[in-house]
Amino acid sequence: MKLTPRQLNLFMFLKLPSAYLCGVRTAFIDARSCEVSVRHRWINQNPFKSMYWAVQGMAAEFSTGALITGKIKESGTRMSMLVTSNKATFTKKATGKITFTCQDGSLVDEALNKAIHGGEGETIWMTATGVNEAGLEVSTFKFEWSIKVKK
Prior knowledge:
By secondary structure, this protein is α+β, with helices and mostly antiparallel strands. It contains four helices and six strands; from the N terminus they run H-H-E-E-H-E-E-H-E-E. It has one domain (about 5-150): Roll (Thiol Ester Dehydrase, Chain A), CATH 3.10.129.
């Protein structure tokens, strides 16, 4: 069964309520990419009247993690996943609707295949780029994910 944006948003509501309350929502997911949006609002702003960096991070991380989660689910293999490191770059004030896109589905496929058939844990760096409604990049997040078959 493939993951849908609706399933991911329900998961977020139940398991990640702070992200849900801040307005983080999955807009699209397929085998190659995932889009997660969040709108600048009073509840998620910083003192400079732009979106707080941590809210951007929640949306960015979810776009990468949703891809891994969906592919693990499709594989039918019990696996663990964990963010082990991250980096972020901010290039413009985040106001309005910000959409984070991760297009690293093929990287996930390779890493899962290695982890399942090689018996060792794997790490991959995934990138989520946030753009505003004008299409201008506001931030880029890179997450190092560790994946490992559960024994």
